[in-house]
Amino acid sequence: MFRWTTFGLAIESRVHEYVPNRRLGWHGYAPGTQPSFYHSWYREPRGAMCHVVMDEVGIGKDAAGLRQSDEALMHRGNDRTDQPKAG
Predict the structure, then answer these.
(1) Cβ–Cβ under 8 Å, residues 25 and 15
(2) I want to staple 40 with a disulfide (CB 3.0 to 4.6 A). Which of 25, 34, 46, 69 is the partner?
(3) What is this structure's pTM?
(4) Using an 8 Å Cβ cutoff, are 45 and 23 in contact?
(5) CB 23 within 8 A of CB 41
(6) Contacts of 49 (CB under 8 A, 6+ apart)
(7) In this predicted model, what pLDDT tens digit does every residue of 29-54 receive, in sequence order?
(8) Cβ–Cβ contacts within 10 Å for residue 13, how many?
């Protein structure tokens, strides 16, 4: 299990799948609750760099409430840039 914070919320997560240099997936949830989100990162090698595609799915009343209150919030929060970064 690992803990992190996003959008000001404390999250606990457990890795569900791991394929070295290709894919990482984990469940996320508020401490003490059932998993309500699933996150996946897909890595696509591109020479000395890589392209990462992120996917996130939410279920339950909290996910539905977030969509109703601000449907684009997750997109805005997760869209960093489409420009490659060195290092």
Answers:
(1) yes
(2) 25
(3) 0.65
(4) no
(5) yes
(6) 84, 86
(7) 888 888 788 989 999 989 999 899 88
(8) 17
